[in-house]
């Protein structure tokens, strides 16, 4: 898999507010100490693991039996990490969801996995994009990119307060796929087969708060394999949805199995919108637009950095 380096100044320079949220505007109006009080999306009630609190880490405050975490509850002096209390087994499917309960800001907040050999304690007093900083960890940043072994690539949308990040770890094939508000972003990482992995979240932001929405494991049964084939085919999936009661059971058991073509359809429509916008921009006479000139001049250094660092073949990785 190809990656590219983070252009200087790319990380930690912006506060991301432009993202889709799972919660409604009403929820955002009922914050207590900057934290959501609703339980939107937390209805599955599957909790097969929680965050490990054995190391008495003062950078992290936990409650609700390790399902609710506040990073840097007083102030932040570096990067705090939480790690799951169970290791993922081989030849099994795992799905878990992290709900972002407070606004995210600063250097980085990352969601992903790390091996037993990932030494994160050394970075405790550094502000860094921790997950993916070496070959023992993999992470999706709230800025929207993914990182592994110090290399990053553009991946999904930024996320923040009110977002639900889902992760489907397929230990049969060794892939990790992320979901934003229950929509697949495609496979982010491969070659995870045979590794001893834990779920992890890292944060540099004071008072950043997360909940575990659900965490489940499923064996690769014939039922799971059949459903995998059904969701790939539009007509078959339509017939399956029409069988009374069946989908109620399986939607809850296999939360991550959303039809990819539904997402693709939205992506296609979004691209069509983009094409229309681009064709309008192309017809625009820049010489008569002073605002546009100022924007381009201001952004010159950043654009050069970005274009020199991003290889053209990056596009083949968008699913
Ligand atoms: Zn809500």
Describe the structure.
By secondary structure, the protein is of the alpha+beta class. It has a domain at 25-218: Sandwich (Jelly Rolls), CATH 2.60.120.920. The chain is 23% helix and 24% strand. The chain has 7 helices and 13 strands. The protein has helices spanning 25-28, 222-232, 234-241, 246-253, 260-283, 290-298, 300-309, and strands at residues 60-63, 68-71, 80-83, 93-100, 109-115, 137-141, 145-148, 151-154, 164-170, 175-180, 183-189, 197-203, 208-218. The strands form 2 sheets. Strands 1-2-13-4-9-10-11 form a 7-stranded antiparallel sheet, with no helix packed on it. Strands 3-12-5-6-7-8 form a 6-stranded antiparallel sheet, with no helix packed on it. A hairpin with a 3-residue loop joins β6 (137-141) and β7 (145-148). The longest helix is centred in the C-terminal third of the chain and has 24 residues, at 260-283. Mean pLDDT is 81; it is low at 1-16 and 279-319. Bound molecules: zinc ion. Zinc ion is lined by residues 23, 27, 36, 38, 40. Residues 23, 27, 36, 38, 40 line the site of zinc ion.
Produce the secondary structure layout.
Elements: H1 25-28, E1 60-63, E2 68-71, E3 80-83, E4 93-100, E5 109-115, E6 137-141, E7 145-148, E8 151-154, E9 164-170, E10 175-180, E11 183-189, E12 197-203, E13 208-218, H2 222-232, H3 234-241, H4 246-253, H5 260-283, H6 290-298, H7 300-309
Zinc ion (ZN) binds near residues 23 and 27.
């Amino acid at each position: 898999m190809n990656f590219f380096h983070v252009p200087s100044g790319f990380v930690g320079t912006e506060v991301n507010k432009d993202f889709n949220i799972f919660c409604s505007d009403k929820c955002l109006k009922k914050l207590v100490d900057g934290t959501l009080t609703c339980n939107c999306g937390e209805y599955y009630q599957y909790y097969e693991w929680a965050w490990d609190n054995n190391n008495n880490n003062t950078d992290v405050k936990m409650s609700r039996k390790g399902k609710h975490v506040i990073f840097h509850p007083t102030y932040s002096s570096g990067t705090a990490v939480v790690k799951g209390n169970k290791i993922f087994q081989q030849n099994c499917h795992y799905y878990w969801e992290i709900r972002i309960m407070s606004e995210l800001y600063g250097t980085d907040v990352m969601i992903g996995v790390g091996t037993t050999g990932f030494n994160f304690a050394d970075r405790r007093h550094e502000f860094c994009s921790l997950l993916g900083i070496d070959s023992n960890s993999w992470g999706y940043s709230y800025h929207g990119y993914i990182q592994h072994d110090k290399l990053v690539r553009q991946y999904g949308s930024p996320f923040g307060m009110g977002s639900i990040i889902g992760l489907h770890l397929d230990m049969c094939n060794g892939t990790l796929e992320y979901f934003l508000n229950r929509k697949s972003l495609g496979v982010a990482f491969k070659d995870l087969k045979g590794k001893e992995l834990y779920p992890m979240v890292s944060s540099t932001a004071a008072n950043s708060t997360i909940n575990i929405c659900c965490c489940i494991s499923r064996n690769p049964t014939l039922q799971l394999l059949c459903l995998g084939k059904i969701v790939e085919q539009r007509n078959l999936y339509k017939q399956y949805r029409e069988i009374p009661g069946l989908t109620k059971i399986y939607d809850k058991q296999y939360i991550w199995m959303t039809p990819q073509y539904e997402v693709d359809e939205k992506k296609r429509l979004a691209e069509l919108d983009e094409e229309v916008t681009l064709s309008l921009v192309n017809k625009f006479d820049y010489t008569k637009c002073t605002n546009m000139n100022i924007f381009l001049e201001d952004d010159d250094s950043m654009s050069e950095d970005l274009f020199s660092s991003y290889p053209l073949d990056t596009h083949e990785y968008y699913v």
